[in-house]
Amino acid sequence: MTTPQSGQPGDSAESAQTGAHSVDPADRQSESFPRWWWRGMARYRPPGFGRSRLWRSPLRGPWLTSVFGAVLLVTLPAVTLTGLVSYIAYAPQFGQAIPVEVGWLRLPLFTWPTHPSWLYGLNQSVHVLLGLVLIPVVLAKLWSVIPKLFIWPQARSVAQVVERLSLLLLVGGVLFEIGTGVLNIQYDYVFGFSFYTAHYFGAWVFIAGFVVHVAIKLPRLITALRSRSLRGELRTSRAQTRPEPLDVDGLVAVRPDAPTVSRRGALGLVGSGSLLVAVLTVGQSIGGWARQFALLLPRGRSYGDGPNGFQINRTAEAALIGPRDVGAGWRLVLTGGPEPVKLDRAALLAMPQHTARLPIACVEGWMTTETWTGVRLRDLAALAGVAHPGSAYVRSLEAVGAFDRATLQPNQVRDPDSLLALRVNGADLSLDHGYPARVIVPALPGVHNTKWVRSIEFRSP
Ligand SMILES: Nc1nc2c(c(=O)[nH]1)N[C@H]1C(S)=C(S)[C@@H](COP(=O)(O)O)O[C@H]1N2
Ligand SMILES: [Mo]
């Protein structure tokens, strides 16, 4: 048996929280501004606030909250980091990451690699899948601390005001990121504002709240986790379930009801919720036959059979591109060299063809790996008269979308698998997949694999 000793991590935090254990004698004499202010706050309690009798679950307590907290402490940083990495993969150095202007929230940039080719897909699968799978855990964590929303007074010191404000950023931030993220993978443009801009700045609000919250709560989380054994809880039936001892935070109900479920049951419920979300979404990252099980993600499903029967986000119809735009009159224009070079599809097919099996991985988390055939971008650069291209600016025939252009990094232009694809899986590209020609580059974010290419400008370094 160990006995609690003063000087343990939790102690100082707890006495600071109640603020009642030690009163500086000098403070007692002067009724300075803060003192009467906090007292007044405590006296005028709005209805419904105070140690509420409403919250009676015998499961609530620091241990249960800390179990959910520990899971989120480990996993939410992975969701956040993959999100920020995705921003960098969009190549902000070319002004094509959204938002373009981020002021002092600028990220350290690095050249996004082209290998392994599934790198961006993996990053986005982790970001989107983990983000979705954590929704039940986030909700459970919020449920477990509901009584804290109604404590009164909400704060007894300036330090506690800061703590409460950080909670507002944290909870507001995480719900905003989940809300915008989920809407974006379900629908196209449902926002009156840019999804990317909102999601980026929302992430920083969340990060600020998260960092402050972890700094304040980590010692208490460790103490609470040590207060019970997880294995023991997993062996405890509903009938044997007892409330945790009353805590300074007011999580534990003063007059708890009898348990309707054990802690094991509650953890199992949240865990199966996450598992269900995983099963109904993971198919979009695996692709192929598994795609049909991605029921929560309508865009992850298959589009018919045949060589062109894979995922389409944006159809030619939506992009206002008809057969006439891509008929016999279509020319690819290459610029950047001494003279512009114009090629029709037959001329492109007469050039050396290269085949590569490459994924398209969208920011939304879906991925589809296909076999593409076409002309190497570096061969096109050489043909245009640019021996060492520093970047390539690709334009689509499309005139109505946000994704009608892309700039590629030097390594993306020069990679031997980087193609202007003319064919896929042994057949001509379908109109929806970008006929007559589309860009396909290993590990490039999906959005920059421009369809219905009209021109490429090879720029010197
Ligand atoms: N011209 C053009 N190319 C485009 C797009 C577009 O809207 N217009 N969408 C991009 C996006 S967001 C992705 S993920 C890939 C694959 O999209 P798809 O499923 O519409 O083919 O193509 C990219 N190429
Ligand atoms: Mo995309």
TrEMBL record:
Q: Where is the composition biased (Polar residues)?
A: 1-20
Q: Which GO terms describe its molecular function?
A: oxidoreductase activity
Q: Which Gene3D superfamilies match?
A: Oxidoreductase, molybdopterin-binding domain
Keywords recorded for this protein, A-Z: Membrane, Transmembrane, Transmembrane helix
Region listing for Disordered, in residue ranges? 1-28
- Pfam family of this protein, just one? Oxidored_molyb
List membrane-spanning regions: 63-90, 126-146, 167-187, 193-216
* CDD domains cross-referenced by the UniProt entry: SO_family_Moco (cd00321)
Annotated ranges, domain Oxidoreductase molybdopterin-binding: 328-459
Question: Which PANTHER family did the record assign?
Answer: BLL0505 PROTEIN, PROTEIN-METHIONINE-SULFOXIDE REDUCTASE
Can you name this protein?
DMSO/TMAO reductase YedYZ molybdopterin-dependent catalytic subunit
Native organism: Haloactinomyces albus
Lineage, uppermost ranks: Bacteria, Bacillati, Actinomycetota, Actinomycetes, Actinopolysporales
